[in-house]
Amino acid sequence: MTQNPRTALVTGAASGIGRATAQALAATGVRVLLADVNTDAGAQAAAQLKAAGHDAEFLQVDLTEAASIAAFAATVLQRHGAPDVIVNAAGWGKTQPFWEGTPEFWSKLIALNLVGPMLLVKALLPAMMERGSGRIVNVASDAGRVGSLGETVYSGAKGGLIAFTKSLAREVARYQINVNCVCPGPTDTPLMAAVPDKVKDALTKAIPFRRLGKPEEVADAIVFFASDRAAYVTGQVLSVSGGLTMVG
Question: Residue 33 pairs with which residues in a beta bridge?
Fold first, then answer.
């Protein structure tokens, strides 16, 4: 794989960590395919990159719908071939007691945070295997490593994404495909903006650096895994949490 892979696909690219990742990857000179369910914000993010002279394109996808993922993957393969990098950055959660959740809500969480990324990778992986190279970076959460109060099902889905990362890495190493995982801690994103201030204050006090993470700081870790600097790294999980979680 060249120093700058030809095409990088980023889901959840309309905002937050996904958008910061798309910007950081574009800065390395790659073509970036921005994917999101939010058409307006996604198209705006792509237009901003193009206005800055980068090669960027927005494609709409709903990661909770198998048919949408299949159509999206087919379009990517038709227009660009197998991506050199896949970043599964799309994710969503809501804080509530486990016993107040409904099966319908749980299904949405699991679809977006676990099943959707799996389906997307499955659709694109054969072409990457045939080429014999690629990088896959899954964005999970430290909630999936150590648990999170009020995010039990979300934590379970993200824990599943971590395990998926490690197992897939073993399966596709023979094809020179690296699969790694970044686990953000509390990060200043639109999702965090919906969290009550008292909860954010408590989180900030618990973080050794005494502040929330920045989306760009998580993007830096993702870009590392997507680069040739991580050519001999696979099946690994990296927390970007300001020291909030220190897992051996």
Answer: 9, 57
Cα angle at 47 between 43 and 51, to 5 degrees? 175
Catalytic residue among 72, 123, 143, 154: 154
Question: Which tokens sit at 62?
Answer: 């709903």
Contact 69, 60 (CB under 8 A): no
Q: Is 79 exposed, middle or buried (0-12, 13-18, 19+ CB in 10 A)?
A: exposed
Amino acid at 168: L
Strand-pair partners of 35: 11, 59
Task: Give the architecture-level CATH label for domain 7-240.
Answer: 3-Layer(aba) Sandwich (3.40)
**Catalytic residue status for 154:** yes
Tokens of 241: 């949490």
Backbone φ and ψ for 72, nearest 5 degrees, come out as -60, -50
Written as six digits, the tokens of 96 are 């509530």
Measured distance CA(224)–CA(234) in Å, rounded: 12
For each of the chain's 248 residues, which pLDDT tens digit applies? 344 459 999 999 999 999 999 999 999 999 999 999 999 999 999 999 999 999 999 999 999 999 999 999 999 999 999 999 999 999 988 888 889 889 999 999 999 999 999 999 999 999 999 999 999 999 999 888 888 877 899 999 999 999 999 999 999 999 999 999 999 987 777 777 666 677 777 778 878 777 777 999 999 999 999 999 999 999 999 999 877 887 65
Helix%, strand%, coil% for the chain, nearest 5? 50, 15, 30
How far apart, in whole angstroms, are the C-alpha atoms of residue 26 and residue 31?
A: 7
Provide the whole-model pTM.
Answer: 0.91
Domain chopping of the chain, boundaries: 7-240
